[in-house]
Design brief:
This protein is α+β, with helices and mostly antiparallel strands and 198 residues long. It is built from 4 helices and 8 strands. The chain has 2 domains: 104 residues, no CATH class; 83 residues, no CATH class. The termini are far apart.
């Protein structure tokens, strides 16, 4: 078998494995099902306890559905970045209301300790951009084509700071979902959020 064909087949299996393993929960269910899902991914999932506050801009239904502090799971990197999954639910019925996945290094780390990380990440725009494309392909496979998306990163300016962003949006009568990339001096992150309207 020609070497190019072997490499092509190997690359195909590698990419298929990546897409298959990027586990993103996109169903509105009981929180217990999500915990089971995380335990299926890893027999010993790393659960974190953090106080997380939500703004109305981030979760517009916060007045209608008062959610608890999220169930948080830290996963090992599949691609380049570790994943922090946050599952918000209403305590009375245990129904999942909002899910957030953050591909980010040391998400809950100390501000001063993270400065070294930010310095290192500031040179890796292409890595983040490639990860964004990879993750978006996984979500498109589940939710279909986004209602709006970008073809490349946009350069933005805030005071004296220049940074890059990317964004894709999905919306139906049942849910709203957003994938973003922020590549800025104190934020190097890819985030996917989805919330259900009922």
């Amino acid at each position: 078998m020609p070497s190019k064909l072997i490499l092509s087949i190997a690359a195909s299996f590698y990419l298929t494995g990546l897409f298959a393993q990027e586990h993103i929960w996109m169903k509105q269910t009981k929180i217990s099902e999500v915990v089971t899902f995380e335990k299926e991914i890893s027999p010993n999932p790393k659960f974190l306890t953090k106080n997380v506050s939500l703004s109305k801009d981030y979760y517009p239904l916060i007045d209608k559905y008062e959610v608890t502090n999220p169930t948080i799971v830290q996963r090992e990197p599949l691609g380049y970045l570790p994943v922090y999954a946050e599952y918000f639910y209403t305590p009375k019925d245990s129904i999942l209301r909002l899910v957030s996945y953050d591909w980010e290094k040391d998400r809950y780390g100390n501000f001063f300790d993270k400065q070294k990380i930010w310095q290192e990440e500031s040179t890796k725009f292409k890595v983040y951009d490639t990860e964004y494309e990879r993750i978006r392909a996984v979500i498109v496979n589940e939710l279909g084509a986004p209602a709006s998306t970008d073809k490349e990163a946009k350069k933005r300016k805030s005071e004296n700071t220049k940074y890059f962003t990317r964004e894709s949006l999905w919306e139906t009568q049942d849910f709203y979902a957003q994938l973003t990339m922020t590549f800025a001096p104190t934020t190097y992150r890819i985030r996917f959020t989805i919330y259900w309207k009922k």
